[in-house]
Structures are given as structure tokens and as C-alpha cells.
Amino acid sequence: MSDKPEQAATTAAGGFTAAEQTYMRQALALAEEAYAVGEVPVGCVFVHDELGVVGQGRNRTNETLNGTRHAEFEAIDQILALRPAGTPLADFVRDTFARTDLFVTVEPCVMCASALRKLGLRRAVYGCGNDKFGGCGSVFTIHTDEVGEGSKYEAVGGLFRGEAIMALRRFYVRENDHAPAPKRKGRRVLKTTFD
Amino acid sequence: MSDQGQMAWSTPEPVHSDERTRGFDPVTVFVATVPPRSLSALLPWVSVLSVGDNGLERPLGALQHLKRVRPANGMQQVILAPVAESTLSELELLLARSGIDTHGDSGATIDQVAVSRWAPATRAQFDDWKERWPMSFRLAAAERSDALSDAEVAAAQRFMQLALDAAEDAAAAGDEPVGAVMADPKSGVVVARASDLRRTHHPLMHATMACIEAVASAERARRAREAASQADEQPNAGEKRGRHDNDQDDGQDEVAEPDEGEGRADLGGYLCSGLDLYVTREPCAMCAMALVHSRIRRVFYGERSDEGALGSAHKLHVHPSLNHHYLVFRDLRRQLQP
């Protein structure tokens, strides 16, 4: 498995290239890592068109006690740490993110969608949509709004959607079983079919 | 601050959902005017009209906030159906079956009346719209909770002044001139204070984001001390004061802990439950959503922003799909008196 991006000559099933599938597999592995430590299972990688994977992250909201520490923010901090001494912050951000794509297992929430816009991200690829918080089409369209700091970017979903949803479902079924008092909805059952 | 005597605080204004700010929005309905003695014959037929596809009665579809009948000049007026969902000839037939002739000399007619499309969300809307057609109204809990007492306004001004000071610090450091303060309204304690860091440190560290992180880092530090003192089985009196002992020169001042001893252990992971944010400029979508994730209680801001998400470009704090709503007050700023 190479970290180098490659333009596959043929498009793989679902309209995504082999390289894109590889990056989303990495993001899914990070989501699994989050699941293993009791975090909401969302993972992501940022891929620079020359440098390959420049940042990766998974949810860390419970560990940090900070509900804003989503996978994207964790990975963005790794990228910012790559800034060479002497390079102005704004220049580094502009030059880096204009050549960088995001692969994230769940559609970025409104907060992350707005953050990606400020950074000047080129493109976001996500697994499943987020019909409660989604900022790239499901609820809000932060990525293409006329008003907003930063620049618009392309967002496309559906790459390994089923895998991303199953990770979330397993998490919420487990959460329910661990709850100290039974919730109103009763014991949840893992659903394995998709609409 | 030589001009302080001429500066005065503007009154903070609640930022309501569109449901609460909209004016009269008409929808036209067919209304039958009938003699009172004909009403009992008509009503059973009207209810038949109102049975939905699922077999359950839907008094008026989306117009359930409207009363069905009102008296008018000795006659009774009955809403039959929205004009968009029926025809005059269909309804004349309906009345004829009830023994009401709309072309005879009984005075019975069918007319079109513009009524409110929406249920009123505020007392003012109710008072206005019920003049068009009687309706029912339940005062929402939200409307009762956004009235500020004099003491709350005074506290808000004090906290916003601290946020303005943090904004000045940001400007002096060459950053975006925005400041934020997180406060516990019950104890009056400032939990965290932050200056904007987007230009000098991190493009996403807007004052609000920095303030949320300052609350989190204070709580992490408190838990670490608690764990350490439990390991030692010796409470450390010096640590108990717990302020300014882990300051980092990053603009995120930990000002005080919200509740010594108890800590914030009952948060269930929701960091800012019960806390209020004071920020000098309207939060953007990123910051407004971060406040949803943090379960903030109320937000007060000073200047409006075209891309702001709490009243200007969006009203994120009352968006129906989001799982946490919070109260927002804007225009809390100090102005030169004319």
C-alpha cells in the first residue's frame, strides 16, 4: 500500500479510483481505532497531491473532554505542524490545502465543513451522509454557500458508505447496552440492511 | 478610557427563529357562512372532509392551529377546506347534502378568507393573526426564558467587558480583534477567557474555539490533579486553589475553575452545559456548531457579521435538525452616546 497518490487509469466500482478506495480504507481503519477506545467511530486522512498522506485523525472528543475534537481537527493539527520555520502561516495554509483532498468516513459536520472552507481545501470525499449535522449537503451546504469565509470546495459522498454506517451502528448499539439506565427507546438491535 | 463616561451599553436583543419573527403569512380557505340552526347538520359532513388517508381525523391538515367555527353577525362561519385542496362546486354540493342552499334566501354563502398559514409562536403573533381568524396558542417555554432581568443584564455587561479586553489583547498581538469569555451564570465565575489566534497561531483558533479549548484544558488539568491527589491519598492544599498554575502563553487564560471540589464531573461529556459565552463578534458557522457540540446554554455577542451563523447568514442555534438549541442575544456592545 503506497501513500503516494496515483491517478488510476480505470475507475473502480462506484466511480471511485483504486487510490481513493485505499485512502478511505485508511480512514475506516482510523474509525475502528476510535471505536476500540470508546470514541464515536469516525476517521479521516488528508492527501496532498505530491506528498501523499499529510495528516490523519480520528474522533477524540471523550479523551480531550472537548466536543470539537473531531477527526478532521486532529488531522489538521498534524498538517499545520509540518509548516517549515520561516514560512508565514497564511501562505503555508493556502499553498498546502489547495493541493489537498480529504477522505473521511462520515460527511463533515457543519463545524468541520466550515473549517475546511477557511483552510481552502480542494475536495472532500466521504463515506456516509450525516442527516443530523451534515455540512456538505445533508442538512447544510456550507461547502458551496455564497456567504462564508474561505473558498468553496467539491464534496462527494458514498465511498464505502456501508462500512462507515456499520461502524456507527455498532458504536450506538454498544453505547445503549452500556447505559446505566435503560433508555426510552429500549434495547437497540444492530441493523445490517441499508435503505 | 478617557471617553468612558460617554460610552453606554446597548440593550442585548434575543435572536429568535424565523418561526418567531415572521409576519402574517396568508393561506386562503373556503368558509361557509350559515344560519346557526344549520351548523349541526353541516359539521358531520365537514368532519368527513377532514379524514386523512390514514383514516385519522385531521381537522384542517396543516391548519390545526385554527378554530373551525366562528360567529359572525348572527350567522356561523365554518372553515371548509383550503382553496388549493378543494373546489367551490364540490363544497356547494357538500352544503346541499346538509340541506343548505347557498343560492337561496337563507343567507348561506361560501367565501374565500385569508387566514394564518402558521401557528403563532409568540404572543405578539397571536394577537395580530387571530384578528384574521380565531386560533389557539400555547406560550412556548422558549419565549418565557429569554427575558433578561436587570441583574442578568448587569452581569452580561461585566462579562462582555472582559471579552472586549481580550479582543484588545488580540489586536495588540497582531491578530483578529475578537475576544471571548465563558462564564457560569449560577456562580458568576469566569471559567475561561480567550483572544483570537487565527492569524498568529492557528487558522481555526477563533476566540470561541480557543475559549472552548481553554475550558477543556482546565477540566483536564483539574482531573489530573484529582487523580494525582487520590494516588497520594494526600489532598494538596496548594493545588486546591487551582488557578493560573498551568498557564501557557497561548492566549488561553485559565481564569478560574467553575466549581472547586465538585469540578464539572456531572457533564456527561458535554463540556459547556450550563455555561454562557460572551464573544465580541457574531460566531461563524464553525464556532456556532462547536457551541452546539459543547452544549452551551446561552451566547451573547456584540457586533454582527455578514457570515455570522447566529442571526445573520444562518440561525444555527434554533435549527430544527440540530440536537441542541441555545439562546442567543446580540448587539451587546458599548457605544458612544450621541
Structure report:
The complex is a heterodimer of chains A (195) and B (338). Chain A is α/β, with parallel strands linked by helices. Helices cover 36% and strands 15% of the residues of chain A. Chain A has six helices and five strands. Chain A has helices at residues 18-36, 61-64, 71-80, 89-97, 110-119, 161-178; strands spanning 43-48, 52-58, 100-106, 123-128, 154-157. Chain A has a five-stranded mixed sheet with strand order 2-1-3-4-5. In chain A, a hairpin with a 3-residue loop joins strand 1 and strand 2. In chain A, helix 1 packs parallel to helix 6 (161-178). The longest helix of chain A is centred in the first third of the chain and has 19 residues, at 18-36. Chain A is globular, with a radius of gyration of 17 Å. The two termini of chain A are 32 Å apart. Chain B has 338 residues and is of the alpha+beta class. Helices cover 30% and strands 20% of the residues of chain B. Chain B contains nine helices and 13 strands. Chain B has helices at residues 18-21, 39-49, 88-97, 123-129, 141-145, 150-172, 207-232, 237-241, 285-293, and strands spanning 7-9, 13-14, 26-34, 69-72, 75-82, 109-116, 179-184, 189-195, 252-253, 276-281, 298-303, 327-330, 334-336. In chain B, the strands form three sheets. Chain B has a seven-stranded mixed sheet with strand order 2-12-11-10-7-8-9. In chain B, strands 4-5-3-6 form a four-stranded antiparallel sheet, covered by helices on one side. A two-stranded antiparallel sheet of chain B has the order 1-13. The chains are: A alpha/beta (195), B alpha+beta (338). Chains A and B meet through helix 2, helix 3, helix 4 and helix 5 of A and helix 7 and helix 9 of B. Chain B: Residues 1-21, 222-263 are annotated as: Disordered. Chain B: Belongs to the cytidine and deoxycytidylate deaminase family. ADAT3 subfamily. Chain B: Pfam families: dCMP_cyt_deam_1. Chain B: This is tRNA-specific adenosine deaminase subunit tad3. Chain B: InterPro entries: CMP_dCMP_dom, Cytidine_deaminase-like.
